[in-house]
Write a structure and sequence with these properties.
Number of strands: 18
Strand content: 25-35%
Oligomer: single chain
Strand order of the largest sheet: 12-13-14-15-17
Largest sheet: 5 strands, mixed
Number of helices: 7
Structural class: alpha+beta
Radius of gyration: 22 Å
Helix content: 10-25%
Order of helices and strands: HHHEEEEEEEEEEEEEEEHHEEHHE
Distance between the termini: 5 Å
């Protein structure tokens, strides 16, 4: 079972908080051209080596000292993309990589609370290490001020940082994306950069993560040789199935290695549309699909007994792409009526505790 405060690793030195080196002068400016060009960001092995070899006076066990370091390193204004409102970071401390997050949770940020967590990141040699976590309030010298519905200021030790949460309120499924048997629960974006529509099938009591294809996609996709209906992202490892009844792609799998590594590509199971929920619609859908949760979860799917949060994962964790073929075998079955088709594209019982 995962902890309520999810902390992710990154997958390489190129994603370190303090290792992002933006090129200061583009070729256009160097030549005096007025033409504006969009160029990539440069990351170097030199930076990686120097960061890992650096010794630090920071006490890694002192939560307030580490918080001060994080906030001092951030610009005055930051953007929180994941819709469960985690702002992720990582850094090296005496050669060991730490990962963590600051979270302005929808259920308690207006009470002046921000969740702070960090721990030694998982890698191929070792699992996640001991977590350092605290829900910080004014009693800890941390002030959380609401400036508007999705903008908050966090002040600590003389430094104020503005956190702009991701406003996806205008993100609606295009025509032909949601069937008459389904409800659109809300828009979401996970830490990989993908945007999804969270859909609930009222007839079959199943959830789907449907890919938002109205914007440029943050990955390159390759179809499986066995069936072009399944495409897999080169970067993310996310596997999607091309629905033959509706105009959409449904997430059917994430690579199990990414789940083990607890990185940005471990799936959207815990990045729900917290800021855009309509009453108890999500809660009621979960209870309808899993009756064991009745009376045990709140609006945001937190267990009332404090033991974590309910997860929505109607897809598989695959080791080999061929593990995904059973979706197609079911969906391509001879004589399968359209009314039963979408049962093939979700794993029943795809939920559980975090």
């Amino acid at each position: 079972m995962k902890t309520p405060m999810k902390v992710l690793t990154t997958t390489g030195a190129a994603m370190l908080l303090s290792l992002a080196l933006s090129v200061g002068m583009s070729p256009a400016s160097a030549t005096g051209s007025s033409e504006s060009k969009v160029l990539p960001t440069l990351h170097t092995n030199q930076q990686f080596i120097e960061e890992t070899r650096q010794q630090s006076d920071m006490d890694i066990t002192d939560i307030k000292q580490v918080l001060g370091f994080i906030l001092d390193a951030l610009p005055k204004k930051v953007k929180v993309y994941p819709t469960e409102n985690y702002y992720y970071f990582s850094f090296y401390w005496h050669g060991y990589k730490y990962a963590g997050n600051l979270r302005l949770a929808a259920r308690d940020r207006d009470e002046g609370k921000i969740h702070f967590a960090y721990f030694p990141a998982a890698n191929v040699s070792s699992e996640d290490g001991e977590m350092h976590y605290k829900a910080l309030t004014a009693e800890d010298g941390v002030k959380v001020s609401k400036k508007s519905d999705l903008v908050y200021e966090v002040s600590f030790a003389g430094k104020t940082t503005t956190f702009e949460l991701n406003d996806l309120s205008s993100m609606k499924p295009p025509a032909g994306t949601v069937s008459a048997d389904e409800s659109f629960i809300g828009p979401m974006m996970d830490e990989s950069g993908f945007k999804f529509y969270l859909i609930y099938n009222n007839k079959h009591k199943l959830f789907h993560y449907v890919l938002n294809e109205t914007e440029p996609l943050p990955d390159l996709f390759e179809p499986m040789a066995e069936t072009p209906r399944i495409t897999i992202g080169r970067r993310s490892g996310f596997a999607f199935y091309q629905d033959r009844v509706m105009k959409r792609k449904i997430l059917i799998g994430v690579n199990s290695t990414n789940v083990i590594m607890n990185n940005y590509y471990d799936g959207p199971f815990d990045q729900l549309p917290d800021n855009f929920l309509k009453g108890d619609e999500l809660k009621n859908a979960v209870i309808a699909s899993d009756k064991s949760t009745k009376g045990k979860i709140d609006k945001y799917l937190y267990f009332i007994n404090g033991e974590g949060r309910y997860l929505i994962s109607p897809y598989i964790q695959y080791e080999q792409p061929t593990d995904l073929l059973f979706f197609d075998e079911c969906a391509a079955s001879q004589g399968l009526p359209d009314s039963e088709y979408h049962r093939c594209l979700a794993v029943e019982g795809g939920g559980g505790e975090q």
